[in-house]
């Protein structure tokens, strides 16, 4: 998922942000405390994660604009997790504002990066994706976690562009999530040599 034109990915992610913000506008305090699709996380946890994820992307990109190879989270995964936990219980008004303001900051940073020609594209900041892939990776976070909110947005609502990119990317990595036997069973079905196996067991999503 790193060979997509950043301008195309930015446009798709802006559209995903707008759809997310439409859903977020319906969140009140009771909804924010509701369990989400992610074990142990409430709606407030996911909204906080999405906001901090936007800020993390912006941090990396702002660093690249200055010639600094920075990680998304200065304190690593521990800082990320602590920030999500600390912010999850905030009032809905704060959560809604945080999601929108962080998304707008990131969009503004993307605009500056595009104007500057996406400088220092090789910087990784401890991530597995280069600087120009930021919009596409952010799109993945927004589309997947929008569904995880369990607030009416469904996989059937995913942007077509996201589905095209993500499906191809996921299928490339599918064999690494299956046992050798299940890989063969799946391939047999795909090539019309067996029925669809309904008991495949997938390893962790990557």
Q: What do you see in this structure?
A:
By secondary structure, this protein is an all-alpha fold. The chain has a single domain (6-158), classed as dinb family like domain (Four Helix Bundle (Hemerythrin (Met), subunit A)), CATH 1.20.120. Helices cover 60% and strands 0% of the residues. The chain contains 8 helices and no strands. It has helices at 6-24, 29-32, 43-66, 76-87, 92-115, 134-148, 160-173, 180-190. Helix 3 packs across helix 4 (76-87). The radius of gyration is 18 Å and the shape is globular. The two termini are 12 Å apart. The model has no long low-confidence stretch (mean pLDDT 93).
Write the layout of secondary structure elements.
Elements (H helix, E strand, L loop, with lengths): L5 H19 L4 H4 L10 H24 L9 H12 L4 H24 L18 H15 L11 H14 L6 H11 L16
Helix pairs in contact: 1-5, 1-6, 3-4, 3-5, 3-6
């Amino acid at each position: 998922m790193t060979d997509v034109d950043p301008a195309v990915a930015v446009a798709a992610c802006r559209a995903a942000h707008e759809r997310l913000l439409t859903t977020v506008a319906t969140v009140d305090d009771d909804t924010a405390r509701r369990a989400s699709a992610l074990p142990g996380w409430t709606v407030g946890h996911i909204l906080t994660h999405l906001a901090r994820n936007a800020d993390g992307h912006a941090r990396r990109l702002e660093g690249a604009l200055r010639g600094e190879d920075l990680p998304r989270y200065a304190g690593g995964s521990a800082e990320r997790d602590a920030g999500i936990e600390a912010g999850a219980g905030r009032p809905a008004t704060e959560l809604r504002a945080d999601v929108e303001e962080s998304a707008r900051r990131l969009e503004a940073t993307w605009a500056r990066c595009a104007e500057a020609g996406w400088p220092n594209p090789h910087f990784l900041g401890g991530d597995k994706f280069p600087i120009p892939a930021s919009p596409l990776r952010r799109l993945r976070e927004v589309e997947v976690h929008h569904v995880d909110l369990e607030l009416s947005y469904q996989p059937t609502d995913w942007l077509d562009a996201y589905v095209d990119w993500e499906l191809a990317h996921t299928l490339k990595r599918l064999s690494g999530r299956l046992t050798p036997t299940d890989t063969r069973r799946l391939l047999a079905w795909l090539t019309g040599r067996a029925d669809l196996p309904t008991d495949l067991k997938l390893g962790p999503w990557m």
